[in-house]
Design goal:
Length: 375
């Protein structure tokens, strides 16, 4: 039985009818690819719960060895055939039947096929930036970033792909090494053939210089990077269609949102990061003090409160806001995106509640302050 398992290209294996000593009622096993690596994934069922385990392919032999004595029934599902082993009364019976399973197994847990930008696609700046190898394979250590920028572009495309403008202008706040900025440019200019104007802002001079060099090397017109402190410097002042920020530190996100609001930008895609401000300033004083008692909980609550307030302010400013998990937590612990689209005029419905919270808990919040000071 074990040899057949190891030498068969299976779609799925199930182990059922547990014997004494079996920890789970049933186990279902299938091959998967995680971060470009082969694994065997086991779904282990116990009462009404399911527990997942990913076993590296080269450890599968040992893993299945430990399981086979514990289950009376083992079914090996291949494309078109189901092989069943049943062991009882000291004997093992083998039988075969037909099934309708297809030959092509989707091994990927990562929805590889849905990516807008495919691994292997000729995107030269990604090689310069160290995301792709010279033959356009994703560098292992950059897989999470690749996943993030791919998803980010997908979301932008969903919202802005049909923008009927001759030229689309996009600002990226806290662009850093600018993987995202380059990908957005590549996607709009090279894939969609759109005229775009994109500016990435960052504090770091050397990083900005390097990004400008890469943009020039590939003749990416209208893609530029500028050294700027988005909290105080003068930024691009013409019409802007889209503002993006991916993990812009702490209150840099507030300034990005404020800039977008002030310029009536139609689309905002912002994934915040290191929301320290409220965590550092919040004080006990209300019904929810228990959430401020333990450091790690206080930190997480403060981060969520920060992003809730930002979303509420955007709503007041006339935006339709979605707060979404833009990638799975496995690809980034900072995975909340504020996706906002300007759909109406300013109408203050949340401001009072934010004010009340602020009075109760005494925290500071930059976007709220900027909006209040503007009036
Ligand atoms: C965590 S990195 C993210 C970089 C990039 N967006 C990404 O996701 O790979 C945050 C970037 O924000 C930049 N940054 C922080 N505060 C800033 C400010 N006030 N003005 C401009 N850039 C800022 C930092 O220099 C850093 O490169």
């Amino acid at each position: 039985m074990k040899n057949e398992i190891l030498n068969t290209r299976f779609v799925k294996i199930t182990l059922s009818s547990p014997k004494n000593g079996a920890q789970y009622d049933k186990i279902s096993i299938r091959p998967v690819i995680l971060k470009g690596k082969d694994y065997i994934q086991a779904e282990r069922f116990k009462e009404s719960k399911v527990f997942h385990l990913n076993v590296e392919k080269n450890a599968f032999n040992e893993y299945i060895d430990g399981l086979l004595p514990l289950y009376s029934q083992v079914c090996i599902f291949t494309a078109g055939k189901t092989i069943t082993y049943f062991s009882g009364k000291g004997k093992v019976k083998r039988s075969e039947s037909k099934n309708n399973l297809k030959g092509e197994v989707n091994l990927s847990n990562d929805r590889e096929k849905d990516y807008i930008l495919k691994e292997g696609e000729n995107i030269p700046p990604l090689v310069d930036l160290g995301v792709f190898t010279p033959d356009f394979k994703v560098v292992k250590s950059k897989y999470d970033k690749y996943k993030q920028i791919n998803r980010f572009v997908e979301l932008i495309d969903d919202e802005c792909g049909k923008l009927e403008k001759e030229e689309i202008s996009i600002l990226d706040f806290g662009c850093g090494k600018s993987y995202l900025t380059f990908i957005i440019y590549y996607y709009f200019a090279k894939v969609k053939g759109k005229k775009v104007k994109i500016i990435g802002y960052d504090l770091k001079k050397d990083v900005v210089e390097n990004c400008n060099k890469i943009a020039q090397k590939y003749g990416y017109e209208n893609l530029e990077f500028v050294v700027a402190d988005v909290k105080k410097d003068v930024l691009y002042d013409r019409e802007i269609d889209v503002v993006v920020s991916l993990h812009a530190c702490d209150t840099a996100t507030d300034y990005a949102l404020y800039y977008a609001i002030s310029k009536n930008v139609k689309h905002i895609f912002s994934v915040p990061c290191c929301q320290h401000e409220i965590n550092l300033s919040i004080k006990k004083g209300g019904d929810m003090d228990c959430l401020l008692k333990y450091g790690i909980i206080k930190e997480r609550v403060s981060a969520l409160l920060t992003d809730s307030i930002r979303a509420m302010i955007l709503e007041d400013m006339g935006y339709k806001v979605d707060v979404i998990e833009f990638v799975d937590l496995a690809h980034s612990p900072k995975n909340l995106m504020l996706r906002a689209k300007k759909t109406r005029e300013v109408k203050l419905v949340n401001a009072e509640e934010i004010e009340r919270l602020q009075l109760t808990y005494g925290f500071e919040q930059t976007l709220f302050k900027l909006i209040k000071d503007k009036k």
